[in-house]
Amino acid sequence: MRITIIDGFRGFFLFFMMIIHANMLLKAVAGKLNHHYFGWVEDAQVFVFISGLVVALVYGRIGLRKGEVAMSAGIRKRMRTIYSHQVGLVLILFTTALLTQYFLGRTSPSLRPYAEDPLAFLAASLLLVTGSAHMGILPMYILFMAVTPMVLRLFHRGYLLTPITLSLILWLAAQTGIGEHMVARAEDMLAAQGIGIRLGLFFNPLGWQLLFFSGALFGYLLSVDKLDLSLLDGRDALGAFLLCLLAFVGLGIYDRLAFGTWLPPETLAAIMGPVDRGNLSILYVLAFTVDLFLIVWLIRAAPSCDIPVLQAMGRFVTWLFTRPALVFLGQHSLHVFSAHILIFYALDLLLMFYKPGVVMANVLVLLSPLPLYAVAWAHKKHLLSEKQAKETTSASPA
Description:
Strand content: under 5%
Number of strands: 0
Shape: globular
Largest sheet: none
Distance between the termini: 31 Å
Oligomer: single chain
Mean pLDDT: 92
Low-confidence stretches: none
Helix content: over 70%
Order of helices and strands: HHHHHHHHHHHHHHHHH
Radius of gyration: 22 Å
């Protein structure tokens, strides 16, 4: 059984992931009018968290109904599906880079790693040890899912704190920079052999796994009907909400100061020094926790509180994340994510030949999510045709 609001969240963040990535190329004002520019919580963090939640919810229920063998088999099947998207995208980008380099003598900036050392970068991408621009989530997702059966088995046996404690320790290890040092050494060794490629997925899996497996804990508790949110009711939780709301505003202002032009360079360097998105440093974890509490409280507790403004905010949040247009994207999230990658690279190629003006840049940014709906619709039609074929086959006499 699908949970509509979870699909709505996935659709919302996929929609704006497309907007943000398109705007990295187009630099349009319209592309800056979103949540990315106020606070430290971005689409990637939420997408990874919800992915962990959904995996544990779906396969946790399979484990309860059909056993752990069926659960593990289902997860492996899903991993193969995700890897097929990784392979398909990598081969498309590899071929495009070689063709443009051959016929034009150059390729787009995002495709350049494929053109500079084609076979090495292709092999590293297929082995999930490097990633093209904006593709790091897929290989990281596969790595996390490989560990998920073991984590769900621990959850089923009542060990909830053990895997989460290990997750926290691994996250702390990521903050030491050990992983970055090891990747740099591996790059140096390859460079000494004449293979000058960049390793790593930009997202450090040791850091980002904290989001995935925190989401998995919530998903598992939901799958066994043990997710108790009654703690959010009452005046105490209201006080916590107001404090988190204040923290949200403060973090948003801090964001604008860090990425603005109002402070001297030495102050900006001091602010950004400990901030590391790749490792998911403490600021990102803090901001995500604050935003998660705000959203869950608004959905769960705001409708029953006695403050009209907060009641209205709660109704709006629920309304927004249950919009059919967003839910539809979320229901086909893997295909939509893959499509957004191809749209980004197609736009990058287009800009080799065409430099849009201010108005057209804004138009392109706003229109960039539309092809995602075409892909979601095509996938829905494919699923319906498969379902009809199975029903026809099962109804046919032996």
